[in-house]
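hey all, quick one before standup. I had two proteins in the batch that finished overnight and I want to keep them in one place so we stop losing track of which output belongs to which input. First protein below, input sequence then structure tokens straight from the run.
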Amino acid sequence: MSVLVSVPRRVTSVAFVAVLLAGGSVACGGGAKSSSAVANPHTVTPAAAVAKAGKNAEDITSLHYRISGTVPGKDRLEADASMSTQPLAMSMNMKTTAAADQGGNGRMKIRFVDKVMYVGGSAVRPEKLNGKSWLRVAPAVWGRGGVDNQSYGILPSQLQASPIAQSTLLTGSKDLRLIGTETVDGAKTTHYKGTVDSKSLIRGSLDQFMMLEVSDPLTMDVWIDGDGRTEQFRMRAEHNDSMVGTGDGPLDLTVTFLDVNQPVTIKAPPAKDTTPLAAEAPKG
């Protein structure tokens, strides 16, 4: 049985990242696209189309997705990930230009399995790995609410939420409009656009909004296929200056759903390939 190291939440994210990374950064899995013809977008209101896609998101049990764009303090970010909801698990490969600028190549592998986070890749300081391939740290939680998530600053806050939940944020928009029909990664879709703000969101969605660490309003685009399912969404907003450690720069992330409800297996790395991260007391 492997022994997990429990890192107290009081260990600051900044301190954790500083001792862990040689530079800073993450990819995972994919497949088939729906080729369903898009229904005439003029026969359904934008609000009804977006609401249907939000409802259909509740049926997603596994997902392979791609992320690209910018997050405050991380510059350019690219990630490829797979997740399951039962049990809740996630595997991601990520690359950020901010990490590369710090001397590494900005590549990192992250897995969340059974409330344990595993971190590997060339962005991790070799001396922290003790000859192993992965660090492990617990407790770690991904894909829950903002209060429950814990990745010790390794993942940007904007990537700690489940993309399934994020895809439904536009259901709170009061100014939805039809943009047109477009093809996304081989799928025929209808493109809608709108804005949301913290005052118009219900409690669950408000939690997702707060995790983005942005100021009102959030501009959001969503591309919906002929079956009424989200194929892609894009979120844009200015960073919230009141958020501690948010960093400079805007949020501009595009998330593309590559495979939905296809078999996903996410396992912890072999125990022989992992080493616990020793907790360090915060300085200052």
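OK second protein, same deal, sequence then tokens:
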Amino acid sequence: MPVINSIAAYADDMTAWRRHLHAHPELGFDCHNTAAFITARLREFGITDIHDGIATTGIVAMIEGDGDGPTIGLRADMDALPIVEQTGAAHASTNEGKMHACGHDGHTTMLLGAARYLAETRNFKGRVALIFQPAEESAGGAGVMVEEGMMERFGIDRVFALHNVPGLPLGHVFTAPGPIMAAVDTFEVHIEGQGGHGAYPQDTIDPIPPALSIAQAFQTIVSRNHASSNDLVVSVTQIHAGTVDNVIPSTAFLNGTIRTFDPEVQDMVRRRMGEIVAGQAASFGVTARLDYITGYPATVNEPGQTAFAADVARDVVGAERVDTEAGRQMGAEDFAYMLQARPGAYMFLGAGEGAGLHHPAFDFNDEIAPIGASILARLAEHAQPA
């Protein structure tokens, strides 16, 4: 693999950065120490045009190239997850109940590696905007950065991002034009009946039968209300009711997730859920309320930018290691907000064998950091050649 030689030369530094970040995870928008670490590294690289406090702890750092030109945005997420780590690594989390279980420590490291190289060489025209984003896992930090005017403020014309994926071949790149990750919505159903003694159900209005019926009926949305050619997931993930064996409860609660790619399918699901909840509530004589919470939109790669990014990846890892027909994933990603604001592409980088994302035994594979950093750097150089 033709990883950039100078990036390969400071692979040990990148490993040290990544393991420091892994040992000190932070959640959501509260990435103050992470942001301070990033800023310190950027200043060591000679980058001084650094703007912090965007979406609370987000950073945009600008590198000026050799001559006038457009601005390309390269993004890394930097927040962790509320998970108790089980890696047993020497660099394991020192913040109990928090860990980098998705590899954002590695994504940040890859962008820092690209930043160091680009600051040293400046073999591009225009500017590179280094975007370090908080709250990907929770509150849509990408959307907040966009809402705060990041694209306009820094004149960003297009934007790209990489995500590691354990279980995929090491150093292979996967992407696809169009929708690549799903929109994610959440639903809650709150049911109110009338509790009482379990031995005398006739004196109660039991909320459990309607809860079960609603959960079953929700599955007919996938099987009977949409075309099988349109990807759709409706998953009931929680049902809560009752406390003891001889008391019929007064309330029941359902919760779950919806994954879609098409806004029309998303609207259909919302409508059908409302109809099902209302109908089942009337049938069982309970009161029921549906709360439908719209989350991240679908992550949609612009076809031209996807083809460009794939060509850059081929230059780094080889044509045989780049797959542009990876297919759509039902996971979600708030980089979608940046792709709504500007054309660009999102790519997956295979990390080899290891525990899966969001698993307490996950640890980013440091071997792929120079590969990812090289791809990010080449994106800038190929997009805006000097």
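Flagging for whoever picks this up: Residues 5-179+298-383 form a domain with the Aminopeptidase fold (CATH 3.40.630.10). DSSP finds eleven helices and 16 strands in the chain.
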